[in-house]
Structures are given as C-alpha cells and as structure tokens.
Amino acid sequence: EQIEKGGYDHFMLKEIYEQPNAISDTYRGRMRVAEGIIKMAGIDDNLAKLLNAKRILIIACGTSWHAGLVAEYIFEELVRIPVEVEYASEFRYRNPVIHQDDVVIAISQSGETADTMAAIKLAKERGAFVFGVCNVVGSSISRETHAGAYTHAGPEIGVASTKAFTTQITVLSLIALKLAERKGTISNSDFHYYLQELERIPEKVKLALESNEHIKLIADTYKDAKNFLYLGRGYNFPVALEGALKLKEISYIHAEGYPAAEMKHGPIALIDEQMPVVVIATKKGHYDKVVSNIQEIKSRKGKIIGIVTEGDETVKGLADHVIEIPETIEFLTPLLTTIPLQLLSYHIAVMLDKNVDQPRNLAKSVTVE
Ligand code: AGP
C-alpha cells in the first residue's frame, strides 16, 4: 500500500496532487487547440440529439452532483439550453416529467452508485437519451447509458472525491464548448480563447498546489472549530458546497456551504468570533458583491479565509487569511478554487488524527440505497 501511495501519506493527498495530470489526461486526444477542434466520440456520434435537446437533466449524487451544478452554470451560459440538476435519489422516486427531447447526463465516478443507476433506468424507460460521465471504465453506469465520455482520472482510492470532481468539470466543459461552438452560441474567437485557457489549467493547478504549506498553517489555526461556513456565488457556489462536504466527511466537523447572498436569509445568525468562514472571492464573478458579503462577516467578527485571485488587495485587507489562485476565465475558476479547499480539509483531518482515506460510516461507492 505504501508503494501505491507513491510517497504520499494518504491516497487523498496523492490524488489531490495528481490533478494537473488527471485534467490534461481528460482533455488530451479530445481537444486540439491549434486547430480549434474538440473530438469526443460519444458527442460526435449523437450530435443532432444533443444540439436539439430542449432541456438537459443532470442526475448524480454527492460530489458528482456538485460537478453537475457547476455544469448547469456552464451549459446555460455557453450553450443556452435550460439545465436542471437533480439528486438521483430524489429524481427516481418523484415521478419526474421527462420528454423525448430531453437529454439526461448522469455523472458518477464509480459508475456503480445505486440511486444514479436507478434514475438512469427510469429516464430510459420514459424515452430520454442518457449520456454518462464516469471514471471507472466498463462500470455498470457506463454500460447502461446510451453514450458517454470517460473522465480518465485514473483510479480514485480515497473515499473523499478529489480528482474525480475536477475531471468531471473538465469533461463537462469540453461538451459544453463543443455544443456551444456548433450551436453558434459563442463566437469563434471566444471558442479558441476558451480552449487555450482550458489547456493552461493544469499549470495553474500546479501553482495553486504551491499554497500547501500556507494552507497547513491555516488548518492548524482552525482545526478545533466546531463549525465552518463556506460561501461562494455563481460558478463557485457549488465549490462552496463541495468544500463543506470535503470537511464534513473526513474531519467530522460540521460545515455548511451556501450561496454567499443567502447568508442574510439565515446563516448570518451563526456568525461570531468562533466561526471560520471560507469565502471564494475570485476577481471574476460578482466580486464586488462577495466583497460586501465579506464586510458583513467581518462586522460580526467571523474569521475570514478568502480564496482570491493572485494579486488581490481588497480582500487581503479584510480577511484574516487569503489563499491565492491564478487568474483564469470565470467558468473555469472552479477547477482552481477547489484545490485549496481540498487541501484545507485534508490537513485538518490529518491534524485531528482521522482516517482520511476511509472515513467512518462511508464507502467509496454507494451500491445500495
Ligand atoms: C465524495 O467525496 C463522496 N465520497 C460521495 O459524495 C460521492 O461523490 C458520491 O457517493 C457519488 O459517487 P459516484 O460519483 O461514484 O457516483
């Protein structure tokens, strides 16, 4: 097992550090930046079906559901097709309205999640076209779906999903870009620019990983907190949910993710000097609004950990700590903002002496209801 961990103390840490390669493995062979081409067999073979979709339904559980939420923002922005994201466990039992011209995208790292599988069967019975985004090659879900795209993240052993999340977002971004280019909902020059930016993400993830020692110090400061709040807006709202899930599952600290503006509708009552609040405040994406949310937290003495774009001075002046990430286009920011949140939860769990790779009560794939 030590050998399999490749010199890292835990699989989770190894998998966090594998993300630059995992992301490039995901787009390699699919994206030709110089020529401005995205080739994905599962998409190319079903292009008419996908382009004519009146609606996209995304079904998944857990972290994969969070990737689905990021995809909702990306698809609606780039492709202008309405998207709904559903927990597979809710979808399968609520007699959902499904039309023949709906496209269902099922996301699952393991490809074995029971609720996601049941939701796929239901969608198929009602005539929908179902596209799978799985990591495990030959898994049950990859076989049950009409078509699909693998994430090519390599084996994910840690129960806490890390590289599966970022590679799911990468695949879903490729799909959205391809459809947007074909539909003409983005300009040719934007399409080329977005491909270039996606190609730069692995290098930027490496830079984000360089904050590891700084994040360890922050983890040490807050490891004894009883609660954490995670806030983000737009593309980074799902990242806030994912950051909170990571902390909960491996450190057993209660954490909640919220869209930052929802804070004043309830959670703000929780904020006092004991409450660490992780705020994703990157330069693009409602930056000024997030800064005013930070001011609200500060005036209630909450402890602020800001995830900011490098060079940011405004949030630095307000927050107790900042963690910088490189700049990128807005819809790709989740691929970078997620990194420090993974490291923060990892270090807190290690410091609390928890079983990082196999947290209590959890299984890597949930094959029963
Ligand atoms: C994530 O850290 C979790 N362990 C869990 O939420 C997981 O994402 C969920 O069970 C879905 O699994 P899947 O992607 O294999 O379907």
Automatic annotation (TrEMBL):
Residues annotated as domain SIS: 46-185, 218-359
Any GO molecular function: glutamine-fructose-6-phosphate transaminase (isomerizing) activity
Primary location recorded for the protein, binned into one broad class: cytoplasm
Active site as annotated: 364
Keywords: Aminotransferase, Cytoplasm, Glutamine amidotransferase, Repeat, Transferase
EC number: 2.6.1.16
Keyword Kinase attached: no
EC class of the enzyme, as a word: transferase
Catalytic activity entry: D-fructose 6-phosphate + L-glutamine = D-glucosamine 6-phosphate + L-glutamate
Localization annotation: Cytoplasm
Protein name in the entry: Glutamine--fructose-6-phosphate aminotransferase [isomerizing]
Keyword set includes Repeat: yes
Lineage: Bacteria, Pseudomonadati, Bacteroidota, Flavobacteriia, Flavobacteriales
Function field: Catalyzes the first step in hexosamine metabolism, converting fructose-6P into glucosamine-6P using glutamine as a nitrogen source.
Subunit text: Homodimer.
